[in-house]
Specification:
Blueprint lengths: L1 H4 L11 E2 L12 H12 L16 H15 L8 E4 L1 H13 L5 E6 L3 H9 L3 E8 L2 E2 L1 H11 L3 E4 L13 H14 L2 E5 L24 E6 L11 E5 L1 H8 L2 H6 L4 H12 L2 H27 L13 E5 L6 H10 L2 E2 L1 E2 L12 E5 L5 H18 L1
Parallel strand pairs: 1-11, 3-4, 3-6, 6-7, 7-8
Antiparallel strand pairs: 2-9, 4-5, 8-9, 10-13, 12-13
Length: 380
């Protein structure tokens, strides 16, 4: 088992429940589905998928993906508007390479996905936070900041946001696009949680607005299938896709992940992916309810909004709480989390922490919250 763990990015410490992990449960990674789909492709007579791939991605796979998105998102998606990439993180990095220069300004929600901040730092970009509320980023604040800082792009997680759990309303989505068109910045929408809803479906994705040249939607199989596939997609206007597919990286190496996309084509085309996503909704929905109940029972003095989808609770500690200071104490009680300051471009949210309900089964989630409550009370 130790050799297998050497292949995994994170490490599990025996006796510690890490509620900070934003990863799917091993038990939910559909090895049998992927094996069946892969076997069908590996018996093909012509090994086209072992050659350098076309820059935009395997066309039959894009047709299958477009049909899947049409069925699940509820609006027409054309294969020509999709590009296959190596996950949402890889797509974000490529967008920064092609559409920004060191010193450019990027706007993000506050709080925002903390590892996106690492990518922006790698590209020498200046990050300016946009205030948020329960419905996502504030359009009036976005307009003010856009006029003041002339950003190159806005990075947003519009649906079941990481870490805040909030969802940008449909009216605000339209306002964001209008502001992008008026002020000339790109909207890069990280939509990896959009299909993981546990109550009512969310508003239409930002992908719905890609008739505008200012909107780029990022999708990924990491949350709805398996992160080790390193497979995702971009949906954007043809002008944007031309810029992406014409870059030197793809000119030299061809399209990204043609082998993996070929192996998954049957899974996407034949309905297995939809069935798996439906299963994930049931499992994650039950885990969300378990964590909510545990928080209300064990930490009634903490404040949070129950997320309608995604992976995360964004929890405010009782008055005077400091999540960074709590970390070390929590470790002694056998529990981990991610402190709020990680998710702030300007060092805020120190009284918040992010908890994930995706990785553990319900009983371990309850035990993790119980340990967290013990640590909080030890600090008071």
């Amino acid at each position: 088992m130790s050799q297998e763990w050497a292949s995994v990015q994170f490490k599990i410490v025996v006796g510690v429940i890490d509620l900070g992990l934003g990863d799917p449960d091993f038990a939910l990674l559909p090895l049998k589905l992927i094996r069946r789909s892969a076997e069908a492709r590996l018996w093909a007579r012509f090994p086209y998928f072992l050659q350098y791939g076309t820059e935009q991605g395997d066309l039959p796979f894009r047709h299958a993906l477009a049909a899947f998105l049409h069925r699940t998102w509820g609006h027409e998606v054309a294969a020509e508007d999709l590009m296959i990439l190596h996950g949402a993180s890889g797509a974000l990095d490529l967008i920064c390479t092609l559409f920004t220069q060191p010193g450019d300004t990027v706007l993000t929600e506050d709080p925002t996905y903390f590892l996106a901040l690492r990518i922006f730092a790698d590209h020498g970009l200046r990050v300016i936070p946009v205030p948020t509320d329960a419905q996502g980023l504030l359009p009036d604040a976005l307009e003010t900041l856009a006029r003041k800082h002339h950003p190159r792009l806005l990075y947003t997680v519009p649906t079941f946001q990481n870490p805040g759990g909030f969802t940008l309303s449909e009216a605000r989505r339209q306002q964001v696009v209008q502001l992008a068109e008026a002020n000339g910045f790109l909207v890069v929408a990280d939509e990896v949680y959009h299909l993981l809803y546990y109550d009512e479906p969310p508003p239409p994705p930002m992908a719905h607005f890609t008739a505008s040249e200012q909107v780029i939607s990022l999708g990924s199989f990491s949350k709805i299938l398996a992160p080790g596939l390193r497979l995702g997609w971009v949906q954007a206007h043809p002008t944007v896709l031309k810029r992406l597919t014409g870059c030197g990286l793809l000119d030299s190496g061809g399209g990204l992940n043609p082998f993996t996309s070929a192996l998954l084509r049957n899974l996407v085309a034949e309905g297995d992916l939809e069935a798996h996503v439906s299963h994930l909704r049931k499992v994650y929905g039950a885990r969300r309810r378990a964590m909510e109940a545990a928080l209300r029972a064990e930490l009634p003095e903490a404040a949070f909004r129950t997320p309608q989808g995604g992976f995360f609770f964004w929890v405010r500690l009782p008055e005077g709480g400091d999540a960074s200071a709590l970390q070390e104490v929590a470790e002694t009680f056998g529990v981990r989390f991610r402190p709020g300051v990680l998710f702030s471009p300007n060092g805020g949210w120190r009284d918040h922490l992010r908890l994930c309900f995706a990785f553990y089964e319900e009983e371990l989630l309850k035990e993790g919250v119980r340990r967290l409550a013990q640590a909080v009370r030890h600090e008071q």
